[in-house]
Amino acid sequence: MLIELKDVNKTYNNGQPLHVLKGINLDIDRGEFVSIMGASGSGKSTLLNILGILDNYDTGEYYIDGRLIKNLTEKQAADYRNRMIGFIFQSYNLIGFKTAVENVELPLFYQGVARKKRHQMAMEYLDRLGLADWAKHYPNEMSGGQKQRVAIARALITRPQIVLADEPTGALDSKTSVEIMELLQQLNREDKMTIIVVTHESGVANATNKIVHIKDGIIGQIEDNRAHSASVFGTSTIMK
Amino acid sequence: MRLDINTYHEIADSLLRNKSRSLLTGFGIFWGLFMLLVMLGAGDGIKGLLTENFEGFASNAAIIVSSNTSVPYKGFQEGRYWELEYRDMERLKKLIPELDVVTPMISQWGQNAVYNSLSTSANVTGVNADYVAIEAPVMKYGRFLNEVDVERGRKVCVIGKRIYQDLFPDGGDPCGTFIQVGSVFFQIVGVNVSSGMMNINGSTEQKVIIPATIAQQLYNRGESVDILCATAKSGIHMTELETRVRQVLGREHFFDPDDEPAMMFLDTEQIFSLIDTLFRGVDFLILLIGLGTLFAGAVGVSNIMMVTVKERTVEIGIRRAIGATPSDILSQIMLESVSLTLIAGMFGIMFSVMSLSVAEMIVRSSGEFNPAFQISFGLAVAAAALLALLGVVAGLAPALRAMNIKPVDAMRDE
């Protein structure tokens, strides 16, 4: 198992204690393409933050590749995030004053990779995603789909074990959304990349092979969706 | 901390992204350092100009002048005038061995010095050869009076700068020529161009200095002397000798040694220490104002960096999410702060050096003075070091705040 969650609990203590995750047990294997679905407030974002080592959990155990992720120092956490996890955000979260290629390079910069090497690698990944011509452009000169593809290149460049996508199509129109999801599917199929998508859109979830439903902080149904027939809105589009 | 060319790009980027803000913030540092260095340089230069005025004047000397008594003493009424006389020199030397040189001065004001058709007003001053211990002459031509001149009562003179300029407008060495002072001809043996502002009994520039023995005879002074000048031996403070001088002279001339107004005792040591204190006060003021302004500038930088960090919360969160360690973020903000301070400060150093050079040129072109306003290289290096330190201090609080930004903050702000 690549990811193992054992009875993970998380409570926020902002005035009134809020028990967000109430004993999450989840296993995700290498090469899986999973979506975590739930309404807002269901705890799916918190779960994503914990999976991405962006946040701590209170009790339970979380293993990545057999390694316990608990009580890490900030430096260790940063290092694990950098080497094991690639992030794709809803709002792309590219750095506005950096060009596409500089944005893609950034994780390698923090790894201490030499300048020439990381530039070359960044260009390779942009090329794979069909953005080689846009390398010198700034994010505000690109369309949403292009920006998200730059973000995907940035997530992939460190060859992470897990790609975490938080509402990756949330800011895109339906046509581009389909393209992005197809891109993620392709990555999963051809590169055997483990991808976890957090979404509340059934169409997005339908593009994945396994759907984990989360509700009120507990995992409900885990749906095998290799047939891609889960969407109530149809199989070929993403309902906006 | 990872330092490569991108680090510098990032710093330049983030400083240039908000040009006017960086400019205004940097101006605070620029102005602070500019003020500090210009004031230090100018302060030193003015101090130099002022001390030039006291150059050559003994810093441990006393000038003794007789005056009216203010209390009755030994049967004499108050208000009596007494006179210093030649023999007081010997008495003082014998009874107060701590004194080094005791020398007389006899002055005759408002005389006319004539050479050919030119004339000018002069103050004739009779001194002994050892007067140089009190006020060192700056001889442009010839020599000062010597002991033989005084002993034999030669009719020779040393003229001051103004007299020389008035009587010899064409310049040249006037030694050997005779000038008429009053009704007597004197042969010039030297020209004293000393232009110090500290003079006894009139400006040195306006003086015709002759042997005291001649002045005595010429102006019918008998044994009386206008002024006695004395220096103390090295290691002895003139101030400590005042009481004993009063006792010796009081016993001889029948005035109360405690009668302050009866005898003027002007102590150059006190004057010099007063000036010293004044300079030290000015130095302190300069440092206070300069460092204060600089510090205010640093506070400005710190403030703006705080705002920058606040603005860039999302960006910093993204960086953290994709693997920047807290120390990466810390050093980034720190480097920005130090760069801004250093660049602004370097301009401050450059402009202050330029301004001081221009000021030096202007003052020098007037011909009167030869000032040294320029700051030393060491001071400039110290200023640069101070800048780096200020940058670190200014960046500390914002950098710590930036360090505490959690990566989840990047996603929260959607």
At a glance:
The complex is a heterodimer of chains A (240) and B (414). Chain A has 240 residues and is an alpha/beta fold. Chain A has helices at residues 44-51, 74-84, 100-111, 115-128, 144-156, 174-191, 202-206; strands at residues 3-14, 16-28, 33-37, 59-64, 67-68, 85-88, 162-166, 194-199, 210-215, 218-224.
SSE topology sketch:
The complex is a heterodimer of chains A (240) and B (414).
Chain A: E1 3-14, E2 16-28, E3 33-37, H1 44-51, E4 59-64, E5 67-68, H2 74-84, E6 85-88, H3 100-111, H4 115-128, H5 144-156, E7 162-166, H6 174-191, E8 194-199, H7 202-206, E9 210-215, E10 218-224
Parallel strand pairs in A: 3-8, 3-9, 6-7, 7-8
Antiparallel strand pairs in A: 1-2, 1-4, 4-5, 9-10
Chain B: H1 5-17, H2 19-54, E1 61-66, E2 84-85, H3 86-95, E3 99-115, E4 118-127, E5 139-142, H4 147-152, E6 156-160, H5 161-167, E7 178-181, E8 184-192, E9 207-211, H6 212-218, E10 224-225, E11 227-232, H7 238-253, E12 263-267, H8 268-311, H9 313-321, H10 326-365, H11 377-403, H12 408-412
Parallel strand pairs in B: 4-9, 6-8
Antiparallel strand pairs in B: 1-11, 1-12, 2-10, 3-4, 3-7, 3-11, 5-8, 6-9, 7-8
